[in-house]
Design goal:
single chain, Rossmann fold, 6-stranded mixed β-sheet, 10 strands
């Protein structure tokens, strides 16, 4: 993504062209809105003409002095007709303005919703590499703050700009036709108003963009801290984090204060200059009336047109600033939409063959570096073959590359070299949907969504019935604690499952994977958060589930993988040992060293095998 300084230099009204694909589906509504807008503007321009007729025709007195009763009666009838004309103009203006407001506001809300949906839909399809370099808080700021700016322009400022452009052009034409002398002087005043306005406007725009970036910084801090509240509180860092957020918001406030000060000065200048132009036009018109060159009605008409012209120019200068703010926001949103995931579906995806007793897996001479760590090989010439129905455990120290194997199987990343195949098909040759529908995963950090227990488990298969969900929960030994919740399966579990213990969240994740019933199951420390009794129960359930599928298990607690068909020992992205538990113990290599550390010198590990069960609150 481009930096703030780059955006500040690049943002122009042309950047709003990125919104054209979102405007195109509603082109007929846009045409209708423009028609209503032009009608409202023309109605406004008709008001000074009706006012002139009222003054000259209805209120004028004869030069001879007192008029006859008949003349007064005629004048009264004419006065009534002129007031009716003014009323008709007012009604038309009200109707067309209401239609314009509804049409334009609808377009602003609709297009903003479509834009927000498109950006979110695009972001959730990005590979994890995208989130290695983009803070979640900044993405959220773009989805909220930037789309709100776009909504303000599409649903308000743009309409105001077009309306005032039509009124300003119309007022200028009418002034040229009716009073070219005054028009010449007004144009000179307008130049004196517009030039400083443009200069101040550029400064305001820079400060506005800086303010947007400071708000995004605050959002990023808040998103990061609120997602880690237990850690923040356990280290008693609430005050420090509150202070860090306060510094960020104060920076945003200082920038906003500078922007507001500059904009306030700009408003004062525009209002003062506008009144000056009006008074000058009124003075010149008064002299013309006294000299008999124009009528009083002509003066009133000229003053109103001058007011419409000058106020239109003032509004247009303000709208131009809003357009540039929205242009910057649009650029930021277009950057998100332009982000291309390195992991995409192939043009002609292959269909995976049926998997009857589990899937076959093969990694052949795989080379892989994470995009954020290009100098460090996560996997180096890595080869592994897993037969259908086989249970294979991956063990080794942290950073050995165990989780990377899972990420490549799910095709969160593509390899730098070598191939990854599932059931004989390269994972890059099939669609992401079909590939990932074949795989179930139980991560170490279990994700629980802000929904009830039923919907959290059904996430594994959205079309599952309630009975199937409950059966999966029972298989994962989650049914008992779910039934004890206040509303059973309909109990809201809170954001990120804060109302559950770690072990309970883990069993929800296991039930979700069981409901999906995939031919390939990936277990990443799946029982790490369970107490001793729950671990034994879930381990038994997982062993039963493994009978008809291929299973890859990552585990640091070696007691959980002793029954695996094969154990793959990894270190620094390579396989250094392979065999079952007994074979690896006899070889007295890294696995045997890790096993002795856990089984013979770790009293906590030994005591965990015999500890009394105790469910976390």
């Amino acid at each position: 993504m481009t930096s703030a300084s780059q955006r500040a230099k690049a943002a122009t009204p042309r950047s709003l062209s990125g919104l054209l694909p979102f405007l195109r589906p509603y082109r007929w509504r846009i045409v209708a809105a423009i028609v209503f807008l032009v009608a409202a503007s023309l109605t406004t321009l008709a008001f000074p003409v009706a006012l002139r007729k009222l003054i000259d025709g209805g209120l004028g007195v004869s030069a001879a002095g007192a008029a006859s009763a008949a003349a007064n009666g005629e004048r009264l009838m004419a006065l009534r007709d002129h007031f009716l004309e003014l009323f008709a103009v007012g009604v038309a203006l009200g109707v067309f303005s209401a239609l314009r407001f509804y049409s334009v506001t609808w377009l602003g809300e609709r297009i903003t919703a479509d834009l927000r949906n498109a950006v979110y839909r695009h972001v959730v399809r990005q590979s994890p590499a995208f989130f290695e370099t983009n803070a979640t808080g900044e993405v959220l700021s773009r989805l909220t703050t930037d789309t709100t700016l776009v909504q303000q322009v599409v649903g308000s400022s743009l309409s105001m700009g077009l309306r005032n452009a039509v009124m300003g052009a119309g007022a200028m034409v009418m002034l040229i036709v009716t009073n070219p002398y005054v028009m010449t002087q007004v144009l000179g005043i307008l130049i004196l108003v517009v030039a400083p306005t443009m200069a101040f406007g550029r400064r305001v725009r820079k400060l506005s963009r800086a303010s947007q970036d400071r708000v995004a910084d605050s959002s990023a801090i808040a998103a990061e801290v609120l997602n880690a509240i237990p850690v923040v509180q356990s280290y008693t860092q609430e005050g420090r984090e509150a202070g860090r957020f306060e510094v960020s918001t104060e920076n945003a406030f200082d920038t906003a204060k500078k922007r507001t000060r500059m904009r306030s000065f700009l408003v004062a200048f525009i209002i003062s200059a506008t009144f000056g132009a009006l008074l000058w036009g009124l003075y010149q018109g008064t002299q013309a009336v006294l000299g008999g060159r124009i009528t009083a009605g002509h003066l009133g008409e000229t003053v109103v047109y001058v007011m419409l012209l000058v106020s239109s120019v003032a509004v247009l200068s303000e709208v131009y600033g809003d357009l540039l703010r929205a242009a910057g926001a649009t650029e930021r949103l277009m950057e998100l939409l332009a982000a291309v995931s390195p992991v995409v579906d192939p043009a002609a995806p292959l269909t995976l063959p049926p998997a009857r007793s589990g899937s076959s897996v093969e990694l052949s001479h795989v080379q892989f570096h994470y995009p954020s760590r290009p100098q460090h090989a996560a996997l180096a010439d890595y080869s592994l073959r897993v037969k259908p129905g086989e249970t294979v455990a991956l063990v080794g120290p942290s950073g050995a590359g165990k989780s990377t194997v899972f990420q490549l199987l799910l095709r969160f990343y593509d390899t730098d070299g070598g191939a990854v195949t599932l059931d004989g098909v390269d994972v890059r040759a099939t669609s992401l949907h079909e590939l990932r529908s074949r795989i179930g995963i139980v991560p170490q950090d279990s994700t629980v969504f802000s929904a009830n227990a039923m919907e959290n488990i059904r996430y594994g298969r959205p079309d599952a019935t309630d009975d199937e969900v409950i059966a999966a929960a029972r298989a994962a030994f989650a049914d008992e604690f779910i039934q004890r919740l206040p509303e059973g399966y309909q109990t809201f579990l809170g954001e990120r499952g804060v109302r559950l213990s770690g072990g309970q969240r883990q069993r929800i994740a296991i039930a979700r994977a069981m409901l999906k019933n995939p031919p390939l199951l990936l277990l990443d420390e799946a029982t790490s958060a369970l107490d001793a009794e729950s671990e034994r129960m879930v381990q038994a359930a997982l062993e039963a589930a493994m009978a008809d599928r291929t299973t890859l298990v990552i585990a640091h607690r070696l007691a959980t993988v002793q029954k695996a068909d094969r154990i793959i020992v990894m270190e620094q992205g390579r396989i250094i040992e392979e065999g079952n538990h007994q074979e690896l113990m006899q070889r007295d290599g890294l696995y045997a060293k890790l096993a002795r550390m856990q089984f013979h010198t770790d009293p906590l590990e030994r005591s965990a095998e015999t500890a009394e069960p105790q469910e976390a609150a």
